[in-house]
Amino acid sequence: MRAKHDDDRNIRTAYRPDGTVKGWLVRFTVKGQLFERYFSAAENSLPAARAWRDDNKRVNTKAPGTFRADVQDYLRDAPIHERTRPATIKKRTQQLAFLGAQALASGSRVLTVKEWLVEREAAKAGHPVPSRGRTLDETARHEIPIDRWAEIFAKAFAPTGRDAAEFANTSNLYRSAAHHFYKVLDRHEPRLNPISKVAVRPRQEPSPKGQDMRVIAEILKHVPTKFGRDGRATELRLNVLAWCNIEPEQLKNLDPARDFHDDPDATADEIVDGAITLTCPARLKGRLKVIPAPLLKFLIPRGVEALRAYATESADWKTHSFSNSSLLKALKRASRQAQVALAKQGVSVDLSGMTVKQLRHSFLCAMTLATRGRVSLSGTLRVDPGVIAAAGHADATMMPIYVERIMREADRLAMADTARYLAALFAQPLKPPTLRVVRGAK
Hints:
Elements: E1 11-15, E2 21-30, E3 33-40, H1 46-60, H2 67-77, H3 85-100, H4 113-124, H5 146-156, H6 168-185, E4 209-210, H7 213-221, H8 231-243, H9 248-252, H10 256-259, E5 260-261, H11 268-272, E6 277-280, E7 295-298, H12 301-313, H13 324-344, H14 356-370, H15 385-391, H16 399-402, H17 404-426, E8 438-439
Antiparallel strand pairs: 1-2, 2-3, 4-8, 5-6, 6-7
Helix pairs in contact: 2-3, 7-13, 8-12, 8-13, 8-14, 14-17
């Protein structure tokens, strides 16, 4: 390989043994980032290789102060927790690159995410991309009009049908990325965050549904232990999620040897009274600097059985083998088989929409019924208003910090009521022809 002349700087020509050109290797760095691509002579030309090099150099060497340059500063310095930083940076890189590729002029065509991805792949392949004039990437972030921001979000994520909430969640995620981008870079300046003027799209999520826990037990009987690579692990994880008040992300970070406080000699009554507990890793959603303390959770007898089985076999499992998609696939398959089995017993129930979220919500519904509303359908313990007023707080969000012992005792009693409720429930057989579904807020 050798360079021919100055126009081919950063481009090396590869030759075949007979002296004919095999292709061109383009390799250069911009601000420490390596750009490299091989162009086969059978499919491309030297001008195409030069165009790809020049376009990437032009886009990635924008003058300081442009939106694109600011994005690089943001991605390097954004205050994101180390545990979630790699995944978050990957998402923000894609989100901000999409927004920066939009045309600056008001009324200009707005690309959808799908259209932008197609253009990006075409550019990587050396194909010409239609020019849209000056883009947000080439403009200082404070020179981008607020109206243009609103126009981009309104058109890029516009519903395609009658459902006004279509793409609302995606739109709000991109809006959050842009809002945080301005918030971080302007944290030392008294400036208005232009994204705050972009309306948040309302979402219409279906209300969670909770099945009778006897139906859940039937579903768990049909979980395929040989489904996928980690069939047995999936089965045990679904059992833990069904009988313990724990999120999938918390289960993923759970170390049974450290967090499961078992007592093999505890009787059923002692378990109901709170003899066996679980230290549950706190969720890090929305946390930047402060890591919440782990939560102590009390368990019902079925939860203890599930965790004992999980602790026995989980020592050899690796954290990265935890797959939410595997959980959902196994649960869907088990639900279909359970629906058929229940139908043979004369019990009609629709399990086609069963998800891992609904599996957990079913247990929360049981807690709500068992405690007569002391535990909400979101799993939150409701505190008596008089206790809140006595503590001098406007709401209950700060109560666990100041009255932790009282709250812990309330949690223990709520779980004991749940255990007794389920014991009475399972003493009764399922009755045909239908089961009532309990619905509620998240």
